Fold this sequence. Notes:
single chain, mainly alpha, 2 helices, 0% strand
Amino acid sequence: xxxxxxxxxxxxxxxxxxxxxxxxxxxxxxxxxxxxxxxxxxxxxxxxxxxxxxxxxxxxxxxxxxxxxxxxxx
Length: 74
C-alpha cells in the first residue's frame, strides 16, 4: 500500500520551493544589478533602489519562512 502525502505537507513544500526560488532570484538580481550599476555608472539612487528591492525580497522570504515554521509547530 502506498502512503500519500498529506495535502498540508504538499502545500508546505510548495511554499518552501517558492521561498527558495525567491531567495535565489533576489540574490542573483541584486548581484547582477551591482555589477551592471558599476559598469554602466548608474547613479547612486538607482543602486539604492535595487538594494531596497532586494531587501523587500529577503524580508518577504523571512516572513514566509517564519509562517512555515509556525505552521509546522502547530
